[in-house]
Protein 1
Amino acid sequence: MDSPDRHHSGQSGSPNAIVLKAERLVKVFGQKGKTPVTALHEISLEVAGGGVTGLVGPDGAGKTTLLRLAAGLLLPSSGSISVLGLDATRQAIAIQSRVGYMPQQFGLYQELSVRENLDLYADLQGVPALQRPERYEKLLHMTGLAEFTGRRAGQLSGGMKQKLGLACSLIKAPQMLLLDEPTVGVDPVSRRELWDIVNQLVRDEGIGVLMSTSYLDEADRCDRVVVLHEGRILAQGEPKFFRETLRGRVFTFAPAPGRGARFLQGKLSGTAGVVDATIRSGRVRCVFDAVPSSPDGLVSCEDCLDIKAVEPNFEDAFMAMLPHQELPVTPRALHAEEGAEQEITVQARGLKKVFGDFEAVKGISFEVARGKIFGLLGPNGAGKTTTFRMLCGLTGVSDGEVLVAGKDLRRSRARARQRLGYMAQIFSLYRQLSVLANLEFFGRAYGLHGRKLAERIDWALDEFDLRTRQDVQAGDLPGGYRQRLAMAVALLHEPAILFLDEPTSGADPLARREFWLRINGFSQQGVTVVVTTHFMEEAEYCDTLLIMSRGAELAQGTPEEIRNLVRSHANPEPTVEDAFIALAEGEIPGQLIPNGGRP
Amino acid sequence: MTFLRRVLALVMKEFMVILRDPRSRFVVIVPPLLQFFVFGYAATFDVTRVRCAILDQARTPESRELIARFDGSESFRVVRYLQGAQEIDAVLDAQQARLVLFIADDFSEKLLQGQPADVQLIVDGRNSNVASVALGYAGEIVDRFNRSWLASKTVSAGGVRLDVEERAWFNANLLSRWYVVAPLGGTISMVVVMLLTSLSVAREREFGTFDQLLVAPFTPGEILLAKSLPGIVFGIVDSLLLVAGGVWWFGLPFRGSLLALVTVLTLFMASIVGIGLLVSSLSMTMQQALLGAFVFVMPSVILSGFTTPVENMPHWLQIGTLANPLRYVVTALRQIFLQGSGVADVWPQLWPMILIAVLTLPPSAWLFRHRVG
């Protein structure tokens, strides 16, 4: 900005000039012995300088492939792609010296300090020593890392790591920036800061940014959006254009007192004409396939208090755009055990975990009643998984107490784990074994055998639509089916308590909706669910939740109670994410809710 | 009943995971067979056909007879006749010959006069083992030459002469191949079992499947049992296969009892599985586990007496070998093969292996749940 050198680069990136152009771009990945996968089918697009172009789509849509092709790291199977007027196939080196590329897993050296990482990337990119102090100062100031230059990269929080990665890819003042999901798993505050940095770059230096994201709410912040789905462009344009097409098709329904939002959501999602039903800020948000003649006629007054037409957002448009599938009906076959509603199934008191001199969990307490969905919310690195592992008895407790169905799983006998279902964050079934062999093994592990085992496996294959793939090795399943198999295994023995660690991480929006509908059904049948997630909007599906940040509790209560913490004239209908940001920034004191948020 | 079903499911799963994985299958079958043949043929201390050069300045019938004895023996092969002493350096430097036999020109004169006649042997000491063995053989040839010379010339003079007659027990021809191949099955299958078991828990930890086992209603003991069985079974099958190969391919005698053999191998495999599982449950990744396995395998082979006798090691190192299970199985297998020992004879080798298994298996089971990353 202030160096003459950068003025020069600013000129080539003059606003609205085309900085990236792809024509009929095709990428096929072939692996011997396997059918080739077409990641991109004849993609044509243009990216203008001086703005942010968002690349939006579910997992496996081809976002990363497109970014890697643009960075000259992959060769196209056919078609062409050029960046800053240079051909990405033949002039890859020239492109790489002018473009900043930040992959999903940025190659930070965990053992090196912030400063040493910057030095390393400056050396790699050949930044002259004279320009460094000025460039460093600007980048460190912009990313807020100035006071942490001596800290090892491995000890930074998730958001700070992403900011350092961004700083490293900006080290030589690139003329274009390619960012691959820079905000995934990052806490909302850091996400907002990352966006501020990107916007500032666009404003000050006029560079073009192509950035992929799986957070649909971020699409509204882009100047232009390209929607990718299964390797094809579904649509592209300004976010405004997407919203306009949905005008008059989005409504929110307030549940009647005594009827939960989840009940209403279940009802509405099965209604003809509804392409999407989610819970937002306590109301059910519905997207219709066309402007409905009378949305009032859809639900009876006993279920619904009032109906409001609302401003569509990008996510509504995205869901309406996806080739639509039947949403699953409420699952059957899990028999509820009769019992008092108030019976406490999971209990934690003053839970602490210390690794060396690092306090991962700093004294957390909560209770979960039978048949309730309890959510542990927080960004990556907040201590959710550690808390979760302590609950399941997978890791020791440094201080405090955990009781699951009245027992400490770490010390109790193996029998106590019989009534537990567990789904880990990463796919943790036997990849070498077939779908069927996995189901058989885990069924037997929980003592099922004979006809009962056959019945349950039949149920799982039908319920999770796995029958056609029962002989496929679990390791060869596509992502969505892996998640289904993991869930089928967790539910095979009809557990009374379900532990789910980040079950929706990496899943596309459709799969996430399907998942929550299932969970909802199980809880209605009396299954207690403990679930962690870094998607703030998923808080709405929980009965009670605990928001964590840096190992400590920020707030606890029902979604409504948490939203109410930040309700104001300026923001009459806040989201849980708004609450998280306010809590994390200390604008309101946390832990307001007495009684541990018990219903 | 449910207990048995659960454990059976776990054991079946362990076997399936190994047998379904092409790499694990390979590790169990191919390298053991390869190593068996390579060791069986290559690892022998018998020195044969040593290249030797002759500098014969006497050129008499007597000197030619001595040379013929060298050339005719299994141990030596005459590659060159030298013309002068100046050639000795060159031929040894270039390793054309490892040994030079130098016969001085007064060799026959002195012999015929009944005086001591010297022959000089110059050896390449760079490979000290070959050198000393070759010197020994050469000494023997010269000795035999002496005796036959005496016998032919002075039949009646000396009367009754004292002569040493050597007989080696258990290995009459002192074939070093017997010495190497007898414990080979144990040594090679140790490497296989060590690899299999050290990866077993670490692989599950790395892929997250171990958590899934820990939240299921299995006790650590059940998991330990299921994790140990494949290692023990594959270990015994592998080593029995190699024992059979030793007998039928390399022609080793099997003089001991089959019961003793199976007992020794079972206990040995249990102790190796114990160490392997301890390494595995201490590791968080497969890489750490492999490193741990190699840190164990190399020293344990060297300190086992498999190649160099434990008795030759310094005293403090000999004490260290007491913790090495391979040491006991090497000794026991040689006893069973060559000496014809039964279970009672090898008992001193059995109880240390039991002790090692008892000291390693329970801590690994404890670590399943208590090792946290």
Protein 2
Amino acid sequence: MNNKKMKRPPMGDGLKRLISMLIQAYPVLLPVTGACIILSSITNALPAIFQQKILADIGDYWESGNWAAASKVILPKIFILVGLYILSLISIVLYTQFMAYITQGFLSKMRLALFDKMQNLPIRYFDTNKHGDIMSRYTNDIDALRQLISQALPTLLQTIILIVSVFFIMLYYSIWLTLVVILGVFGIMFVSGRAGGGSAKYFIRQQKSLGKVEGFVQEMMNGQKVIKVFNHEDLCREDFDKINEELYNDGFRAHAYANILGPVIQNIGNILYVLLAVVGGVLLLAKVPNISLSALFAGAIGIVTIDILIPFLNMAKQFTGNVNQLAQQINSVAMAIAGAERIFSMIDEQPEVDDGYVTLVNAEYDKDGKITETEKHTGRWAWKHPHGDGTLTYSPLEGNVELLDVDFAYEEGKTVLHNISLTAKPGEKIAFVGATGAGKTTITNLLNRFYDIEDGKIRYDNININKIRKADLRQSLGLVLQETNLFTGTVMDNIRYGKLDATDEQCKTAAKLAGADDFITRLPDGYNTMLENNGENLSQGQRQLIAIARAAVADPPVMIMDEATSSIDTHTEQIVQRGMDKLMEGRTVFVIAHRLSTVKNSDVIMVLDHGRIIERGTHEQLIEQKGQYYKLYTGAFELE
Amino acid sequence: MIKRLLASVREYKRPSILSFAFIVGEVIIECLIPFITADLVNRLKGNIDMKSLLLTGTLLVFMAVVSLACGGLAGYASAKASSGFAKNLRHDVFDRVQSFSFENIDKFSSSSLVTRLTTDISNVQMAYMMAIRVAIRSPLMFIFSVFMAYVMGGALATAFVVVIPVLAVGLFIIAKKAMPAFHSVFKKYDKLNESVEENVRAMRVVKGFAREEYEKKKFEAAAEDIRKDFTRAERIVAVNHPLMQVCLYFNMVFVLFVGAKTIITSRGSTIDVGQMSAMLTYGFQILMSLMMLSMIYVMITISLESMRRISEVLQEKPSMSNPDAPVTEIENGSIDFKNVSFKYSKKSENYALSDVNLHIDSGMTVGILGGTGSSKSTLVQLIPRLYDTTEGSVMVGGKDVRSYDIAALRDSVAMVLQKNQLFSGTIKDNLRWGNESATDEELIEACQLAQADEFIRLFPEGYDTYIEQGGTNVSGGQKQRLCIARALLKKPQILILDDSTSAVDTKTDALIRKGFREFIPETTKLIIAQRIASVQDADMIIILDNGRIIASGNHDELLATSPIYREIYEEQTNGRAENE
């Protein structure tokens, strides 16, 4: 996945994309803000002219000592100055407030874009990437953008305007001297290209290292109990120090390059100044004809004079000062580009493909069995097939599942399931047993298309599951997993997750069916007890019970229970089983369990071994066969 | 608080100070350069003497080179100092977190700790770098400029100084308003990140229930909420810039007007135009340096919340610590519970364990049964001191667990947790958690005992197979057996299996227990299980209900005396008998 992306796009690409996204996000406000920024830089630059004029006026009048006469000339200029200042203030207030709004709004949009994308990524992405590293895009990388948008971009705009205008003013004075300045600019560009490139390279590495640190810490926080039980704190610290050192190295280099850039540019500016003075001196002495825009307009070419040279020198100083200001922002720009690249790499990740077009709809069945689609929640469902010719047909949702010669590999070439064929009809309970790692969980991953099969076919109510829209397919398959994950919220919220419009009563009924009601009512706040951090205040078994209730409330035609009761005591398990049997009457159930008591009353038991079904039949038939199942079932006794 | 954090600068004090020194050098030259350039201009104005022009030029170039060297070195040193400071800070925080008990960790929530270790420290790092680069530069420039303004403009320069208190009050108000805003933003930010993390972890559930859109909506609402708060906080801070400008403009107008009047009415006897012009330049510099100062002030205001969050972690006292004069030798594997009661949080009303009294001889095998939520896991977690009792005491080898060196205690108590956790790394790496210096033979031996050797060998890379984070590429039962092997490598005196064979088939389960009996008879074994078959042959079986021991004895005794045990036994065996 990463290998293809290794060819790094040129530095500017991330920035370009970011800016075009900004414009798209704020097509009106952004130009308005831009206008305010431009206005503020103009109103900031103009006063200097009036100051000079006022000073000149003072020069004209001071010997006279006549304030009354002088004030007639000076006061209007001061009023203009005040006017400019007020204009400037307004534009500054506006643009800083707008920028605060835009920055946070945009960051929020980026977060949403990331999250939206994340929801559409295939399970494989989460199985193969460190969770902390995924998290780091939301924290470190998004944060890196903040400085860029709120500070660097406005500065960029301001200084570009200043630089361009100063450049033209310089041309106005003298083209010869401007050429010297251009020479200096090339020098500055060369240096900043070198240092900026180095800085950018290390900033990208810094963001990566940050992701690594977050990944590591996340993993360690989750495994804290294991760490303590094994006294592994010190080794953990050592490992942490190693990646912390990496981060230090990258961060140090990134900032060092960026920090050095400022003084370098500034002093190139100083040297340029000297160079200008010397060249100017030579031109002055040699009485070289001066070519300038003003001269060209006037049509008369004069010579380089001191009146040209001195303002020009001032201009040059301001020019390099502005360039320097730009250089100050290099840290945040480089860091933001690095962060943006990581964000974009996740946004550009191949999403889970869904070519399904068969959908699940609420349906009404008339007495002839004819199906009509309805908006109402009827409690009955049907598959809706659109056809190429624009017609629609409906077929009932029943819960027939068929696997035909299914092969599957997580990684190419390493097939873990071979030739799996089976049929499950509504009302049947199909069990998978077999040694750990035989491929039981993998089969369930295929049914709801967390992963796609390599070869063969899976049909659901006689529809190839590839044709069913994934969301609809998954909604019709109740899932209780080995690993229980609950969400922050009340117990009730967690149960309702299975069916968002379920009433409190329905949730409670589901909890009763799942045998969870008993312990829930004994919790301090009953169904309103808040669960946090994956239900850390509940025992493993209690969490499994809630997960079962969550699947039960969805009331699906097909249910998959993968070791769903492994941490529940056998007595409670029997209660759960009775409830589930009642719920799933006439429906299809897939059960995976090691506990043979869980699977015993299944209609068909499949014994899996190394990805193949090696035995199948009812409990009695398999015991009769005296094969692998018999061994598994009786093994414990033989040993004793 | 800031002092506490600065303690982490340590070996990076030198680059920090060096950076200061270089910046002083840079500033001095920067202040001198205008004089030389003025001289240069004067030379140009007068009769141009190429020789002296070149001389001054050379001097200027030389100064530029020195300034460049100073500036470059300062940049280098400050990058080193701030990155190093952040490194040490991360080290210290991680160190502290490792010494936390679960009580401490629960207080912060683990995802908040992650944010503190990354985002917050990055904020502080930036603030520190800004501080050491600008904090010395701006005041120096400020002092120099004020001095020069007075030299040039005399009393008029006071105008520049007067605005300082106005600015200070303004900044103070901004900070006062912004701080609580940022405080609440960061709190919400934590929550937002928690929910993202929850989603990453529970992606199978989200997708399984096709709840992608629902989660998006939920996240959208939370993100919008944060956006509003963040915007509000940033807008408060954004007032800083126009405030500075108001002061600057006021000054300019004031000085121009008063200056003009003074010069003209006094006919230039107090100051002249040139001086005033220079003074304006210095006034501009004064305000620029104040501007820089206020910028770091704002940055520090924002990072203050980060600092507070970091120092909160650093200041948190681990609720569990080694006793003075800890015992490091654990005599044997006997276990006693004396009137033990326990609740997870002091505030909670419900006791998870009440009045537990129990004696287990060294070398015994003890089975623990009980319904879902009957506190079986809680009971055994008290033995290696993952939690401390609320009342009563737990003893190992005849001594209170609190008198032992924690590391020594946990070394001799191996526990396989219900929620098994493998770490990214090879199988070997994971096993060596149990014993770092274990030889390959020892690893294999432990794996054989845990019935893991067979399946490991079937992996193409055998013991060098890489385990993904959270062990997603091994099945539940395989994970459990690896965890058992890892615990066995510790050669513990007490071995606790907390429902650790639930995903292992019965035959393998029996083989594992057989191995325990034959190869580690000396070790005290506590086995929490759901299947009676798993504990039937134990020396003692304890039945827990709602945090109390309601029956104990061996299999036969319990069958005779405990109706509950009999019921469970019959439930579990009945079906089987019928079918045979």
